[in-house]
Amino acid sequence: MSRLAVIIPAAGSGSRMGTHTPKPFLTLNGKTILEHTISAFAKVDEVVDIRIATSVDWFDQVEAILNKFADDVESASVIEGGDERQHSIFNALQSLDNSIDLIAVHDAVRPFVSAELIRKCAHRASEVGGAIVAVPAKDTIKKLGDGFEISETPDRSKLWQAQTPQVFRADLLLEAYLKAREDDFLGTDDASLVERIGGVVEVIEGDRKNLKITYPIDLKVAGLILNEEDL
Ligand code: C5P
Fold it and tell me: pTM for the whole thing?
């Protein structure tokens, strides 16, 4: 069985949500979004290590949440995040030891990921190098030039929206992050860093329920999903 670590970046601000509290620390049915997310990973036997990246102001809160999962994993800790998602993940990556085979990165604000999807992604990543969850684009995507004029309409049948988890062999992910840092490259997901060093990353078809809670409407939808699950 592969030993899987999960890095959960949780250092973002609440700017797009319009709240003072950062999104991972907003509550849904009495628990923080971050706790819902951690609990999805704690259920997976292969997950031996959980690392949460956040700002020092939230360390106590995160430690209290992690204590609830102490019996589920070998190690769980909090690491200081950075100015960008990529920097938060890089800090966490550097704190991992070499007993880890696979690393999953998962947004703190995607609490509805299933254990089955985590396992599928990890299994495929161990075979090819990297595997990420994605869903086919449902909207037509427009590429703009400098202003609002459309410069291109890519063929929708080839477009997928990347989600997390994104799972990689540990050595491959570390190499990709080191190279991105060396080149000053900032990506919006982890796979893009691995792709640019020639690593193979496959897509696993995911679930639209695995939404990223970003805007106030997402929080409302998340509440509906949770209530439905409780029925
Ligand atoms: O802001 P964005 O949608 O990219 O956030 C995705 C995830 O990355 C969130 O879980 C957020 O908390 C995290 N993040 C982070 N460090 C940052 C910015 C975002 O850990 N500097």
Answer: 0.96
